[in-house]
From TrEMBL:
Residues 37-389 form the FAD dependent oxidoreductase domain. It holds the Pfam family DAO. This is FAD dependent oxidoreductase. Keywords: Oxidoreductase. Coiled coil: none annotated. GO terms for molecular function: oxidoreductase activity. The lineage of its organism: Bacteria, Pseudomonadati, Pseudomonadota, Betaproteobacteria, Burkholderiales. It comes from Caballeronia ptereochthonis. It comes from the Bacteria. GO terms for cellular component: cytoplasm.
């Protein structure tokens, strides 16, 4: 292909966030070849956070994306800003040892702080709220697990509270759960507005962001790395970050086979009238429950109710693909019966085999980060910050040890064993 060929990007999929976001930033296709200190492939939370932090340190940065900033999961997720990983602090210490484990706990425990600090510092308009995250359970067997989790964070000074049935019902507005906890470090954002705000801040600090620019080849060169694009121009960079997460393709060998890109589905009602909405999440906390196939839910800035969870592995075809979420919402909140749903959408969540985020450093000057397993808003922002310090030479070592790229066995059959896993987890949830 040559430079005279036209560029194209997929349109932003319809969603609540696409309909209500701040205006997009200018991100024209790459018109001419260029040389920079760092090139970043992927304009989501990881890439944009890293670019902003690098530019603040004085480095020249170019970000390219096949579509537009926030087009992927960064602009389609539930907007819940949750610190921590799927593993509790004590488990992280068992896995990584006391010194490294505590460093990881500090990093992930401060992940929500990184998001809200960036929003405040750069005056990002994204409906940011910080009213906490509630993790409730319907299972007597899991109350002890959740309370132990909360106590581990309490022991490290985190502002968390254990919740009994009555306290939980008051905060959630439903009697469907029997206990849980709340983490007051957490909150919510309009995720597409947040992504666009990061992009706007990065551009203000000198970052070049180019949409409709698909990277087709990455290879080492004498001066570092060369990235070829589908429409002709190329980028020379001393260092490269790949930050494509659930939309990873074949740009780097075996990388796409190292994760499962599972669909997460979300529905949103029309703004609820006060007589219905005043008792649903009255404190505007966000929530995601303890099921293996968890449900996550919240209100938005205009009073809509959102419910999210797993759906078919394939791309959605019609409203029936979201019907299970609407049923779940009615079970939690019977007053939603008859309420009209205004938006339905989906996005790809990158799930790793060990349920940990992965940083790969497969060659000198090349870094890769992906696999946030449903904690992408806070963790991708945080990883972007640490990756910037690594690429700038400010931070040596990495709290979470770099991993080798290991393809998941029988990856080509992922849609079949995801379906089997979903059925198995649904059975376990029903029995727990």
């Amino acid at each position: 292909m040559n430079q005279r060929q036209t560029t194209s990007a997929l349109p932003l999929p319809p969603s609540l966030w696409a309909a209500t976001a701040e205006p997009p930033v200018p991100a024209p296709p790459l018109a001419d070849s260029k040389a920079v200190d760092v090139a970043i492939v992927g304009a989501g939370f990881t890439g944009l956070s890293c670019a902003l932090h690098l530019a603040q340190g004085g480095m020249s940065v170019c970000v390219i994306d096949a579509n537009e900033p926030g087009w992927g999961a960064s602009g389609r997720n539930g907007g819940q800003v949750i610190p921590g990983l799927k593993y509790d602090p004590d488990e992280l210490l068992r896995r990584f040892g006391k010194e490294d484990g505590e460093a990881i706990v500090r990093m992930v425990g401060g992940a929500a702080d990184n998001v809200f600090n960036l929003i405040e510092r750069h005056r990002i308009s994204c409906d940011a709220t910080r009213n906490g995250w509630i993790q409730p359970t319907h299972s007597e067997k899991l109350i002890g697990v959740l309370h132990a989790r909360a106590r581990q964070w309490q022991a490290r000074g985190a502002p968390v509270e254990l919740l009994d049935r009555a306290q939980l019902a008051k905060r959630l507005g439903t009697h469907a759960y029997i206990g849980g906890w709340i983490d007051l470090r957490a909150g919510s954002v309009q995720p597409l507005s947040y992504a666009r705000g990061l992009a706007r801040a990065a551009i203000a600090h000198g970052v070049a962001i180019h949409g409709a620019t698909r990277a087709t080849k990455l290879e080492a060169s004498e001066s570092g790395w060369r990235i070829d694009t589908a429409h002709g121009p190329h980028i020379h960079a001393r260092q490269v970050l790949l930050a494509t997460n659930g939309y990873t393709d074949g740009l780097w060998p075996r990388l796409a086979q190292s994760l499962i890109a599972a669909n997460s589905f979300i529905v949103a009602t029309k703004p609820l009238p006060d007589e219905i909405g005043q008792h649903i999440l009255p404190g505007r906390a966000v929530a995601s429950d303890s099921r293996r196939l968890l449900l996550y839910f919240r209100r938005d800035a205009h009073g809509r109710f959102l419910m999210g969870g797993r759906g078919p592995f394939r791309e959605p075809r019609d409203a029936a693909d979201w019907a299970h979420l609407e049923r779940a919402a009615r079970l939690l909140y019977p007053q939603l019966k008859g309420v009209e749903y205004e938006y339905r959408w989906a996005g790809r969540v990158a799930i790793t085999r060990d349920f940990l985020p992965h940083v790969h450093l497969p060659a000198p000057g090349l870094a890769i980060a992906l696999g946030y397993n449903g904690r992408g808003v806070a963790m991708a922002t945080t990883f972007g910050k640490h990756l910037a310090a690594h690429l700038a030479g400010v931070e040596r070592g990495w709290p979470l040890p770099p991993a080798s790229i290991e393809p998941i066995p029988l990856h080509a059959l992922q849609r079949f064993y995801i379906s089997a896993g979903v059925a198995w987890y649904a059975l376990l949830d029903a029995l727990s």
